[in-house]
Structure to design on (206 residues):
């Protein structure tokens, strides 16, 4: 049920994402969703670790991976997580314009990360590291590509929320939606930290 009452900064609850039964259900359902996502990525990590040395005579991770690029991508995504926190801070303070501003910055950083990842993939393909070149290639692109797809989905999700609610403003109906999207974005960032460590750091320094 939509909440139609006119809200102000004084009447807006401290935790708007859980102020209604619908919001609480969204919050609970999202944690079940994250559980399934965690299992999916755990399987992809396990597959990658099992196949990372199966290069079929092609380039190895030490020869391919460039830590500076991976580090810049990591900083972009971690910073976007921080800007998402700022957005939720302003949401809880009933400041819709500032929330939209920080979400916009989050989108920009996320898009920059995705662009850098696409550039990285193109460089690897040029070096002969493709999805079908070896088991290592398949496992790498499946893991990192799945994460990239999640980033793209997160960008579309947040952008859609911003556009659809640009005239409506902030209320107890859409606050849980913004909050859940922010949690999803944090999950993406956490997964990338593991990818950076397991795939890139371990791949280069062992």
């Amino acid at each position: 049920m939509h909440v139609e009452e006119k809200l102000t900064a004084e009447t807006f609850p401290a935790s708007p994402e859980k102020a209604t039964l619908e919001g609480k259900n969204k919050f609970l359902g999202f944690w079940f969703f994250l559980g399934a996502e965690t299992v999916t990525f755990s399987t992809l990590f396990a597959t990658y670790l099992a196949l990372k040395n199966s290069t079929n005579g092609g380039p190895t991770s030490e020869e391919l991976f460039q830590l500076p690029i991976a580090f810049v991508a990591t900083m972009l995504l971690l910073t976007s997580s921080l800007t998402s926190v700022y957005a939720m801070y302003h949401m809880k303070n009933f400041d819709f314009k500032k929330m939209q501003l920080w979400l916009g910055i989050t989108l920009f950083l996320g898009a920059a990360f995705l662009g850098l990842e696409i550039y990285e993939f193109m460089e690897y393909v040029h070096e002969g590291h493709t999805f079908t070149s070896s088991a290592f290639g398949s496992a790498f692109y499946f893991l990192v590509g799945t994460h990239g797809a999640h980033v793209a989905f997160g960008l579309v999700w947040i952008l859609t929320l911003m556009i659809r609610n640009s005239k409506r403003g902030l209320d107890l109906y859409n606050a849980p939606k913004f909050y859940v999207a922010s949690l999803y974005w944090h999950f993406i960032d956490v997964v990338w930290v593991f990818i950076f460590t397991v795939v890139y750091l371990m791949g280069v320094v062992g």
Remarks:
- The chain has six helices and no strands.
- The two ends are 54 Å apart (CA to CA).
- The chain has a mean pLDDT of 90.
- Residues 81 and 199 are 21 Å apart (CA to CA).
